[in-house]
Specification:
The chain has about 120 residues and is an alpha+beta fold. Helices cover about 20% and strands about 20% of the residues. The relative contact order is 0.23. The longest helix is centred in the middle third of the chain and has 17 residues, at about 60-75. The protein has a 5-stranded antiparallel beta sheet, covered by helices on one side. The protein is built from 2 helices and 5 strands; from the N terminus they run H-E-E-E-H-E-E. The protein has one domain (about 10-110): HIT-like (HIT family, subunit A, 2-Layer Sandwich).
């Protein structure tokens, strides 16, 4: 998939669109979702231009792990561990990906059905 540098998350990273930032480091940014699907819903996005999980390569392995570790850290910081939280990566339009900049959803604060979708 071709990465579009005008996507909304790229614009957030450049500071063109404001975000309620929860965490930032040299590799990623975590911020509240503007259209939450649960009482708590935040995103963790890489600063590297990766359109979707399918576009990640073995060179991105450490970054992908960092995104998940950051998701857990922010969830812990928000006190979500006891009640639990869900981590989701949609890959491709057919799976519900609407912004083609890799992103990890973290949702909490309500019951979730299984299987999802």
């Amino acid at each position: 998939m071709t990465y579009d540098p005008t996507n909304v998350f790229a614009r957030v990273l450049r500071g063109e669109i404001p975000a309620k930032v929860l965490h930032e480091d040299e590799h990623c940014l975590a911020f509240h979702d503007v259209a939450p699907q649960a009482p708590t819903h935040f995103l963790v996005i890489p600063k590297r231009e990766i359109a979707s999980l399918s576009d990640a390569t073995s060179e991105d392995a450490a970054l992908l792990g960092h995104l998940l570790v950051t998701a857990a850290k922010v969830a812990r910081d928000l006190g979500l561990e006891e009640g639990g939280f869900r981590v989701v990566i949609n890959n491709g339009a057919g799976a519900g990906q609407t912004v083609f900049h890799l992103h990890v959803h973290v949702l909490a604060g309500r019951e979730f059905a299984w299987p999802p979708g």
